[in-house]
Each structure stands twice: as structure tokens, then as C-alpha cells.
């Protein structure tokens, strides 16, 4: 039923101006629209709605993630823009913050201005 339709990603912000700069300028998503309810971006054919909310508590898990071919290059490019990878106890992450999972996938996490956890994954 829904497998035939495009999926839309959503996250939240209490700081719409910072979200626009972060998702657009830092992450490179294409800004599409500013509505009273959300800042709307597009990346990789997916619509990302950054919902404007009065308050929320970011979850302790990943809210958005990207599959990419070269995680090391992307982590370095984000670091050059001031985005640092998160560190998690119990995960052996390299100096750049990348974790090599048992499946062979390489994963890194970082936060947006509202504290949402975002991830990058390079699959084997």
C-alpha cells in the first residue's frame, strides 16, 4: 500500500532560523519553503520537514540519517563547518568519531542546533 509512495522525513525545531542555516547551509539540503508550521528542505529526493514547535525534548536516538558512499570524507567536510561527531560509551569510535559496526557498516552521529541526533552510514 504505502510502499509505492515517496517517504517524507520529519524532525522538530524550536529555533527555525538556526535550523534553516544548519540544514541548508551546513548540511547542504535544498531549502524549498517556509510555512507557519515547518521549514521544508529536500535532499536526495526526500522531503525533510523541520517542524516548528514551541518546545520539545530531543529523543535519545537518531531522528534522521543519511546513507552515503564515503563517510570519512563527509565527516571531515562537516568538521570543517564546525560539526563534531558525538561520542557514545561502549562504542569504539575512531579519532573522527566513526564506529565500525559488526555488520561492516560505518556509522557516525552528530546533533543539529536543537539537539536532534542525526547519523551518517556507509554500508559495506
Overview in brief:
The chain has 124 residues and is an alpha/beta fold. It is 17% helix and 35% strand. The N and C termini lie far apart (30 Å).
Helix share of residues?
A: 10-25%
The pLDDT mean sits at 97
What gross morphology would you assign? Answer: globular
Multimerization status: single chain
Largest sheet: 4 strands, mixed
The number of helical segments is: 2
Order of helices and strands: EHEEEEHEEE
Order the strands across the largest sheet as they lie in space. 1-4-3-2
* CA-CA gap between termini: 30 Å
| Percentage beta strand | 35-45%
Rg, please? 15 Å
Query: Could you give the count of β-strands?
Result: 8
* Broad structural category: alpha/beta
**Low-pLDDT runs:** none
